[in-house]
Amino acid sequence: MQINCPHCQHKAHIASRNNLNDEKTIADLYCNCSNPACAARFVMQLGFQRWINPPVTNTLELAASLIGKLSKADRVALLKEFG
Ligand SMILES: [Zn+2]
């Protein structure tokens, strides 16, 4: 992940991270600007927003749960369709 200094727009380095929740989806990133003429230090906030694709394990669990609710006849029909 690239962080840019909000003052001079040069690259900045993440010096440390302070997680703000147990899931580690929200964090303060303590950053140092790499431009020696600026040398600013600042905090950026990182936050999880949404899934674009859910994790594979979630998809498999969801599929297994749905298939488990089908009748045996529907499962056989499903296997014929995708097998
Ligand atoms: Zn800077």
Considering the chains and any ligands shown, give keywords for the structure.
alpha+beta, 2 domains, four-stranded antiparallel β-sheet, 29% helix, binds zinc ion, Znf_Ogr/Delta, Ogr/Delta-like zinc finger family protein
Task: Tell me briefly what this model is.
The chain contains two helices and four strands; from the N terminus they run ββββαα.
Could you describe the 3D structure shown?
The protein is α+β, with helices and mostly antiparallel strands. The chain folds into two domains: 3-47, no CATH class; 51-83, no CATH class. It is 29% helix and 31% strand. β1 and β2 form a beta hairpin. The longest helix is centred in the last third of the chain and has 13 residues, at 56-68. Residues 5, 7-8, 10, 33, 35, 38, 40 line the site of zinc ion.
Mean pLDDT: 94
Q: Strands of the biggest beta sheet: in what spatial order?
A: 1-2-3-4
Q: What distance lies between the first and last C-alpha atoms, to the nearest angstrom?
A: 41 Å
Bound small molecules, by name, code or SMILES, are: zinc ion
Query: What's the structural domain tally?
Result: 2
Count of distinct strands: 4
| Rg calc | 23 Å
How many helices? 2
The share of residues in extended strands comes to 25-35%
The biggest beta sheet is recorded as: 4 strands, antiparallel
- Which spans have pLDDT < 50 for at least 5 consecutive residues? none
Principal-axes geometry comes out as rod-shaped
Helical residues, percent: 25-40%
Structural class, judged by helices and strands? Answer: alpha+beta
Question: H/E element string?
Answer: EEEEHH
Pfam families: Ogr_Delta (PF04606)
Protein name: Ogr/Delta-like zinc finger family protein
Domain Zinc finger Ogr/Delta-type: 4-52
Organism: Methylomonas albis
